[in-house]
Amino acid sequence: MQPQLEVNEDLARRVVAAIGRAFGLDLAPAEALIAVSTRDGVDYQCNLAMSLGKRLATPPREVARRILEHLDLGNVLEPPEIAGPGFLNFVLRRSWLEDRVHALAGDDRLGVAPEEQPRRIALDYSSPNVAKEMHVGHLRSTVLGDAITRLLRFAGHEVLPHNHLGDWGTPFGMLIEHLLDKPPAARSGIGDLNAFYQTARRKFNSDEKFAARSRERVVKLQSGDLETLAVWQELVDESTRHFNEVYRSLGITLTDADIYGESFYNPYLANVVHELEADGLTEISDGAVCVFPEGFHNREGDRLPLIVRKRDGGYGYAATDLATAKYWTTERGATDLLYVVGTPQAQHFAMLFAVCRAAGWLDGVHAKHIGFGSVLGTDGKVMRTRAGETIKLADLLDEAVSQAAEVVAERSELGADEQRAVAHAVGIGAVKYADLSGDRERDYVFDWGRMLAKDGNTSVYLQYAHARIESILTKAGNRSDDTAVLLAEPADRALALTLLRFGEAIRAAVSAYAPHKLCTYLYDAAVAFSRFYEQCPVLAAENAELRASRLQLAALTSRTLVLGLGLLGIEAPQRL
Ligand code: ARG
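^ thats the input. predicted complex w/ arginine below
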């Protein structure tokens, strides 16, 4: 079966073709500005005649009239109307809509055609630091990165996820010494990672001897001393166990095979420096090897450096990121480098990309920092515990599940096991959805009440909508997917149109790395379903054909919610 164009794309192509015929202009479909209409009885609209009118020095209504004159309606459109100063109002033909919705029923991908030119995308996400607890910032990277991975894969791209663990650098001197100070019996299991890190830090700051030992230990670590590496590995393993617990509880797709920590790039660092030097890109500044990419200055107007090798000969965060970019493009053939990292690191990535570009490592490669805002407490400040510490992710997730359990407990007909599974799906879903449903660039307020609300744009609302539809379908009993779709009432039609927009939503979410666009769509779909259900009797429809058609719409809505939530990494329990 030939994949069909999404409705907006189909209309856009018709409109630009008409403009080509009418005015000899060659526009790209995206320039047609086709938008879903909010007017009653109108499906899509196009406002292009306004701006074209200016460009062609012709009254917009006249432009609109000539576009219509040349528009191929196919079997898709009713003859369109011109409204007001020159808006084009499009109404889709009922029979065409009915056929399209019918075709959805037989399509696992619900009308989304896979990308014709798939890309090979290296995606850096989660990336917590060894010997520290993950915090809400890592939660955001993890949840966003995982949803983006699922979306890109569904769109047909190849995704190479890599977890850039902070597992190297000077703090490891003190961490290793601190671990070695413990009696051997107490060494297995670091326990509380934050406390471990903080105690090591306190000793480092207050005990000169400990600090000296730590510095020597860094040198040993970097020179590959085996005993030192073994202790370092203990720290890494312990932390990885802890990260994996969080991933498992969150349902994150990352595995140990995706770990490419900072230490992985060690063997590549010296070469990176040599290459940048040979290209004449480096300067010595304060004894350090630096690159000063063009266009980066501080407030005083001084040029900003990317430090490639420190004065003491060591390598830092930036050098590792240079090696990382080079590795994924040259050795792994990535066409895209994506980084899901908080917005405070925007400048670091802008400078990194500038240097990589100058070195020729990004020829034909699309590099992008997918930034995100901070997670704030209900007081509007960056989230902390009452004691002023950063909140531990594991505690937060436990809290989510236990709060969700209270919401679910009202439904006593579920057995204990099912209730536990549902509470998990609801609680974890709520935390993830809260992270995903707002524009990622903005900060968001972590608010239990709001994220677990049964109404509004929440995962709980979507999960309820899905479970309600499933219960209707169960009551309906036997049903065939191959029934004619009849769009008899405006509410039937509105729901059908919404279901046909799934592909548009996926495309928008994928192209902007913006899962919130999918969230908004799913919410619209659930709302459209509930209007439909209020206005159109389903189980008690007037006749058997209409009943079958409405059950078909219900089943499609359910599948849309399950697939959509799945792409966000959120479960949709059958009963709730
Ligand atoms: N470990 C870093 C942090 O916690 C994030 C690393 C992001 N990835 C990268 N390639 N720099 O802030």
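The mean pLDDT is 93.
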